[in-house]
Amino acid sequence: MNESEEWFQRGLSHYSKEDYEQAILSFEHSLDYDPYFLESLRYIGEIYYKQENHEKAIKIFKRAIKVDPEDSFIWYDLSLVYNKIEDYDNAIDACDIAIEFSEVAELLYTLGQLYINKASIEENPQEFQRLLNEAANCFEEILDDDPENIIYLKYMGMIYKNIGRFDSAIETFQKVLAIDSIFIYLYILDNNNKPFSQLSILGKSISYIFKD
Questions:
Q1: Contact (CB, 8 A) for 118 and 131
Q2: Is there a smaller number of Cβ atoms within 10 Å at the N or the C end of the chain?
Q3: Are 65 and 71 in contact (CB under 8 A)?
Q4: Sheet holding 205-210, edge to edge
Q5: Do the Cβ atoms of 86 and 78 come closer than 8 Å?
Q6: pLDDT-wise least confident of 26-40, 85-99, 106-120, 137-151
Q7: At what angle do helices 105-120 and 125-145 cross, to 10 degrees?
């Protein structure tokens, strides 16, 4: 084990004890011996993210990207920082790049969430619709490989509801209810955007409660 790796291991020990100040010092010593030690850069960035020092986290993750531009998890980490500061455009771009190098469900899920987050502050109705359609594409792709995933199905149902695809929303919620044995309530909106029904289930029973 060389000097850089030894300092990295010391950093990991401090990190596991949540002694972040000493962890950063150790990781920085690791980088003194090897400025391209990717894992040291990643952990420093994660510590800054945990400490909500977003500017430093972005700087470190960008430095790590220069070391390995095809590391999907560094791009993913960068997208999380941008999301935290509500810079959704850069967050989406970073997550898109992460997916280019590793198209795993977690990344697609994050990208879908980012589109939803951006839609939540969008005032233009057409752009709002476009963003939710992009989110729908992400969750549909995940569900192609994992069609009974409750979490993704719930998100998919809510997206369908919000973009006015009510038949698809009801069908998706019914799939959730058929799979999930926990008592839950799901609200569907009619074309006038008024609550008209509440779907409930206990086990496999489904009832519709209509409202004016």
A1: yes
A2: C
A3: yes
A4: 184-189, 195-202, 205-210
A5: no
A6: 137-151
A7: 160
Cα–Cα dist 28/68, whole Å: 18
Q: Report in angstroms the alpha-carbon separations of 46 from 15, 26, 43, 206.
A: 10, 14, 5, 45
Task: Name the residue with higher pLDDT: 193 or 45.
Answer: 45
What integer is the mean pLDDT of 4-20? Answer: 96
The whole-angstrom separation of Cα 127 and Cα 119 is 8
Residue entry with tokens 């002694």: 19
What SS3 state is found at 195?
Answer: strand
Coil, helix or strand at residue 186: strand
Residues in the chain: 212
pTM for the whole structure: 0.81
204: tokens are: 């496999």
What pLDDT score was predicted for residue 174? 83
Q: Helix, strand, or coil here: 196?
A: strand
Residue 129 carries which side chain, given as an amino acid letter?
Q
**Can you say whether the dihedral through the CA atoms of 41, 43, 46, 47 is positive or negative?**
negative
Q: Give the burial class of 201: count Cβ atoms within 10 A of its Cβ; 0-12 exposed, 13-18 middle, 19 or more buried.
A: buried
Question: How many whole angstroms separate alpha carbon 146 and alpha carbon 131?
Answer: 23
Query: Which are the contacts of 136, defined by CB distance < 8 A and separation ≥ 6?
Result: 112, 156, 159, 160, 163
Q: How far apart are CA 60 and CA 42, in angstroms?
A: 8
Residue 189 has pLDDT above 70, yes or no: no
